[in-house]
Amino acid sequence: MLFKQATLDAIAAGRVTLAFRRWTRPTVRAGGGLTTAIGVLSIEAVDAIEAADLTAEDAIRAGFTSVAALEKELRREGKLYRVAFRWMGDDPRIALRSEAELDTAGVAALRAALAKLDRNHRLGAWTAAVLGLIGARDGITAAEIAMRLGREKLALKTDIRKLKALGLTESLTVGYRLSPRGRALLDWRAEGSAVEPAAGER
């Protein structure tokens, strides 16, 4: 579930608390969370509705001036859903990616997490190659990485989000770079520091 930057700004200001989407099935659920560029949103409710049920208040709370303006933005296919949410807090990945003082235990934990991502991927090991390319040049794009690795771009972007969740990468206006945490991990490896393998890597 994506938002335009203007909508995110309105959410941050407290002006927008609803979203309307047409889906075959919802991509968020009540009680869950959604990480965005402005932080984490708590999903309060996800309700299937009819277009005829839309109100002027709904439109305003979704960031539109009228029901007609809201309907113009909705896709014509799929069931209409009303999503209520609230801003819950800052993106925890922001603080995590600044934690660059890695000790042996921290490196072992990250290696175990990366090994799990590799094991569970249909293409096998991928994390080292992607981190290496991102570390080689700030601003490298998903399209460039996908071309270098012979990957499909959208699937690759999903994978990079998993690295971001570990605090290892961050998005730039265009492309990606390693976070201080990600750089520290790669520097640790480059220096040949001895790290006891995690149980899943043995």
General description of the model:
- It is a single chain.
- Mean pLDDT is 89; it is low at 193-202.
- Helix content is 42%, strand content 19%.
- The strands form two sheets. A four-stranded antiparallel sheet has the order 1-4-3-2. It has a two-stranded antiparallel ribbon with strand order 5-6.
- With 202 residues, the chain is an alpha+beta fold.
- It has helices at 5-12, 56-61, 67-73, 92-96, 104-119, 127-136, 142-149, 153-165, 180-190; strands spanning 18-23, 33-36, 39-49, 79-89, 169-171, 176-178.
- The two termini are 38 Å apart.
Q: What quaternary form is this?
A: single chain
Shape: elongated
CATH architecture of the largest domain: Orthogonal Bundle
Please identify the top-level CATH class of the largest domain: Mainly Alpha
How large is the share of residues in beta strands?
A: 15-25%
How many strand segments?
6
Order of helices and strands: HEEEHHEHHHHHEEH
Residue runs with pLDDT of under 50 for 5 or more positions:
193-202
Number of domains: 2
Task: Find the structural class using helix and strand composition.
Answer: alpha+beta
Helix content: 40-55%
Mean pLDDT: 89
| Tally of alpha and pi helices | 9
Look at the structure and name the CATH superfamily of the largest domain: Winged helix-like DNA-binding domain superfamily/Winged helix DNA-binding domain
Reading side by side through the largest sheet, how are the strands ordered?
1-4-3-2
- In this structure, how is the largest beta sheet organized? 4 strands, antiparallel
